[in-house]
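chain below, 233 aa
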Amino acid sequence: MGATSQAGNDQETPDQATVRPVRRRLSVDRRREELIAAALELFSRHDAEDVSIDDVAAAAGASRALVYHYFGGKQELYVAALRSAATELEARLRFQGGGGPIDELSRGLARYFDFVEEHAAGFAALLRGGPANRAGEVGEIVDGVRQRLVRLIMNQLRVGAPGPVLRITLTAWVASVETAGLDWLERRDIGRAELERLLVDHMVALLRVAADHDHEVECLLGTLLRDLASGPV
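prediction:
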């Protein structure tokens, strides 16, 4: 009985095994990627100030010294994690060409939601929080993504330098797409394809309103409506 009892005491519980992950020998790049992935997951669910270096180290199965070695501190890790997510998103959304404006917009949305679905933590971490959390370098990363999205849409809509009405309209639509992405990740109570069609229709509806205020938008809307009439989105 004593031997059996001792053997039982020596066995780790699942919880104990979880808190002492086995550290593996990884390349520098691979270890850095794992630390960033762990950080993105935590930053997607918690405010940055509530996440510690110890939290990231534990989630990645690494030591806090290793996190400091790679990133120097939590702010540097936060910036590196957001920059990684932003770079991946922008790579997905590069203008490809080969279709009408509405078709290009629809395909761009599909690539956007591919990223949302496959990299939920990175997307949520990139957009989570309000303007108070977007000062300095973090704000530059988030705003930079938004500005590049607006330029991408202008390419898809065959627009050069937009006037103020069109610029405001496109910026407002990008913000609504971001909000829709976060809502969809949380609830998933609408099909992705339906959401993408809704957002294309939302763009057209915004342009209809803007067209009453600006001739440039009126001309653009006419082009888009002809594109819509020529075939399905």
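Residues 1-23 have pLDDT under 50 and may be disordered. The two ends are 73 Å apart (CA to CA).
thats it, cya
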